[in-house]
Amino acid sequence: MATALQNLSTYDSSGFIDISEKRFGLVVAEWNRELTDTLSAGAYETLLKHGAKPENVFRNTVPGSFELTLGAQLLAQHEEVDAVICLGVVIKGDTKHDDYICHAVAQGLTTVGLKYNKPVIFGLVTTNTLEQAWDRAGGQHGNKGVEAAVAAIQMLGF
Ligand code: DLZ
């Protein structure tokens, strides 16, 4: 993931497999929608840039990041879906909601990926501030949506 030392939005695609026949499910949380739309656009453009066909990328929205797990499962259960990319933004507030949501999503997506034996990518931006979130949605730390798409492509080649 993007850190001060490593920004995966800059990546080496030389080892990517042919994804022209692969089918991708995108699950996008509507909470913090301006941000998640930017992540989604980054993921979508990255998939197309590397050969995915527009008709093979299925974008679905869920209300908030907590629902990413069920959204992922509903897509992953279809045999024709090769990889699922989940995108959301959780910003720390006055309560511990961020902890509960992030842990549930991390655990849930791990479970779905293992259950269906296919890449289910954790594209959740988890930050302390709105500014830090924008830094990771097209700002100085890249676009986590791009990184999530790259992770999906890499895992399909595993
Ligand atoms: C309730 C809630 C809160 C407080 N914050 C966020 C957030 O920062 N990011 C996000 O994606 N979703 C948030 N939600 C909504 C929950 O993810 C979920 O949609 C609701 O609790 C309904 O299950």
UniProtKB/TrEMBL annotation:
The organism that produces this protein has a lineage beginning with: Bacteria, Pseudomonadati, Bacteroidota, Cytophagia, Cytophagales
Q: Where does (2S)-2-hydroxy-3-oxobutyl phosphate bind?
A: D94, T95, R136
List its EC numbers: 2.5.1.78
Which residues of this protein are catalytic?
H97 (proton donor)
Protein name from the UniProt record? 6,7-dimethyl-8-ribityllumazine synthase
Q: Which Pfam families match?
A: DMRL_synthase
Recorded name of the encoding gene:
ribH
Q: Which InterPro entries match?
A: LS (IPR034964), LS/RS (IPR002180), LS/RS_sf (IPR036467)
Q: Which organism is it from?
A: Hymenobacter setariae
Keyword hit for DNA-binding: no
- A single GO molecular function term of this UniProt record: 6,7-dimethyl-8-ribityllumazine synthase activity
